[in-house]
């Protein structure tokens, strides 16, 4: 097997127009920087990518304005991992394919043999080294690899569905969110591309420009917008030597973070892999320490009363204060939040700098048939309702919200900066 010459990785981070289902949490934190299991969403991608042999640099591509938060994140992570990370900003959202194509010169600078592309809103155990081995084992030449996993028939309808040749794993047919069942193998949003992918995207760009020219009503459309899914679908329908694509199957966990509620499940996933990758990040029982059940992350600067009970699947952010007798389970409490004595918080996200009064109960509901069952792969433990759609009723308390003492907040979403005055159930508080 040949050694890989040089490799790059691209993380597609979207822009302000994306991530709408992630509100209200994306209202004052860029979605790609939303912390899951104690670290920004894309930190997990970078942590996985930096371990690839021959990795030269990581490019973040999106249409967010460069911000202090993004700049600081990049500086800190570059310093921590001693790897080059750059943010490339699109002038407008160009779609996943259009964004890659727009920055093709930057991606191909230095002549990488292949490059990884990862959607920022996937949460997985990123089997990048295994995927690269698989990619190389297909032999030399122009081809690409897509990470796939198994979904149920119902779940598959919400994803890009892959039909493959069972012996060679070559993708024969690809349909994004089909109306009727196509295949239970779905696209995980992680790819290895050889540079020839740009020929395929260029063809798709030509097609979309032609379509716009024919459609006299679409003068507003940017002709440079192309979805990677459309390019992949086209590649598999045409006999094109640039378009040979294989699927590498993973049985490791995989889920997406589209809605705020899905972050609770992603948190659970990432905490579970810390056992293998970063056991030091998981809180331990000890004298004068809170009672810990299962997987819990507590930031070093958080102050947790030793009489509190946390877990399973809890993340406590930096500068958080947790009072006496507090109970927290299946929850993320973000930076600077204060939780008063004896509060009880279940299946919830508490936004940054929110204040929760004493003896208050905040609760969401998860369709979680068996919370103790370990995850194997796709999130089958509750992030989906029976029709396969993401549907956890997580309670979300926006940033700087004040929740008084002795109230109950159930299955509700509270927008930032609100001062609540009573109990609420099944409400969106604007
Ligand atoms: P949806 O269910 O419609 O969200 O489908 P999807 O999961 O295929 O999502 P989509 O293709 O829209 O986005 C996949 C990833 O690419 C996400 O992480 C987005 O943030 C990112 N993304 C989407 N559109 C753009 C874009 O125009 N530019 C960049 N740079 N990233 C994008």
TrEMBL record:
Q: What is this protein called?
A: DgyrCDS12886
The family assignment reads: Belongs to the transferase hexapeptide repeat family.
Q: Which Gene3D superfamilies match?
A: Hexapeptide repeat proteins, Spore Coat Polysaccharide Biosynthesis Protein SpsA, Chain A
CDD domains (alphabetical): M1P_guanylylT_A_like_N
Q: Which InterPro entries match?
A: GMPPB_C, Mannose-1P_guanyltransferase, NTP_transferase_dom, Nucleotide-diphossugar_trans
Annotated ranges, domain Nucleotidyl transferase: 8-211
Q: Which PANTHER family match?
A: SUGAR-1-PHOSPHATE GUANYL TRANSFERASE
What Pfam families has UniProt attached to this entry? Answer: GMPPB_C, NTP_transferase
Q: Which domain of life is it from?
A: Eukaryota
Q: Which residues form the Mannose-1-phosphate guanyltransferase C-terminal domain?
A: 292-429
